[in-house]
Amino acid sequence: MTNFHVMLAVAAILFVLGLLCVMTRRHAISVLMGVELILNSAALNFVIFSHYTVGNLFGQGMAVFIIIIAAAEAAVALAIFLNIYRTLSTSEIDKATQLKG
Amino acid sequence: MILHFLTQAVFWFLVILTVGSAIVVVFNKRILHSAFALLFTLCGVAGLYVFLSADFLAASQMLVYVGGILTLIIFGVFLTARMYNMSIPEQTHQRFLALLPVLGLGGIIFYVLNSAEWHLITPMVAPTTENLGKMLLTTYLVPFEVASMLLLAALIGAIRLARPRKEDHDD
Predict the structure, then answer these.
(1) CB-based burial label for B149 (10 Å; 0-12, 13-18, 19+)
(2) In chain A, which among 72-101 make CB contacts under 8 A with chain B?
(3) Using CA atoms, how far apart are residues B53 and B14, in angstroms rounded to an integer?
(4) Domain spanning A3-88: which CATH class is it, in words?
(5) Which chain A residues have a beta carbon less than 8 Å from that of B132?
(6) What is the pLDDT at residue B98?
């Protein structure tokens, strides 16, 4: 058990927990938090492999792009959730079943 | 020797912090507690980035995730819940049904992690910011520009989506 294996295990656990969060929670923002966990685990994996097996910076570049995309995704998703809450007065994703505002 | 021991202690502390608060994020019934647990998960991942000699990434993780995305999420929690109900409990559904495929996937990942032969190199610890900046402006120039356009589009789109409509101004 080196640090490499432990970090890979942490990334795997983060991914699995994020998946569970997306699948089980009802509140839209909880689902968004699960997506953030999954994105974090993916970025962590890129950085781990770039540090321990390749030795260059391309994995870290990928992680930078993952952070950029996570920021854009969170902003747009929260704007959509606010709109759903305003028009349907619910924040549970199961109840948001219509697209018409 | 003592330095190595201290480093390992900090490393395991970060691992336990990350995993433990991620478990709280998923299983806590109160969404506000989940949001604050996510803060500790993100800080733990930033600490792990330091162990991977990714100093720039650790800093931007703290700035973008903890300073930006988490603040947005907490704002979202407050804006989409009635303010007199501060605890904001939340039901979960089909937890045991969802546990099956998730545990299966986790088992597969851990099996591969244990059985694969990794070809490891001796890791180098060096400052990365300068090389990362050079890489973003040479090799990755096109994705970098596309990402900045994406951020601009997401910014304008989020403002347009979240703004109250014209007829809402009357009341």
Answers:
(1) exposed
(2) 72-76, 78-83, 85-86, 91, 94
(3) 15
(4) mainly alpha
(5) 57, 60-61, 64
(6) 84
Work out the minimum CA distance from B88 to partner chain A, whole angstroms: 10
Domain boundaries, chain A: 3-88
Task: State the Cα–Cα distance between residues A92 and B141, nearest whole angstrom.
Answer: 40
Spatial neighbors of B65 by CB under 8 A, at least 6 apart, are A36, A40, A67, A70, B42, B46
Torsion, Cα of B120, B52, A56, B133 (10° steps): 180
Q: How does pLDDT run across A51-95, given as a tens digit for each residue?
A: 998 888 888 999 999 999 999 999 999 998 888 888 877 777 877
Q: Which residue has the tokens 């490891």?
A: B120
Structure tokens at A37: 């966990």
